[in-house]
Design goal:
This protein has 60 residues and is an all-alpha fold. It is built from two helices and no strands.
Length: 60
């Protein structure tokens, strides 16, 4: 039981050291992720379109 109490005390001490991000930092990170995902999605859609057109032109 003593190990469990020590674990919780140490956990509380470590949590007091954590620096949580500000709301503006979270918003900026969210927008950056959305932007990168959108760019990669558009790139992959373009590559897929070009490959499907080239394969369909080879078949026909």
């Amino acid at each position: 039981m003593e190990k469990l109490i020590t674990y919780f005390k140490l956990s509380k001490a470590e949590l007091s050291k954590v620096i949580f991000p500000l709301p503006m930092q979270v918003k900026n990170a969210f927008l950056a992720v959305i932007g990168v995902v959108t760019v990669i999605t558009l790139f992959l859609a373009l590559v897929d379109l070009l490959m499907s057109l080239s394969v369909s032109s080879l078949i026909n």
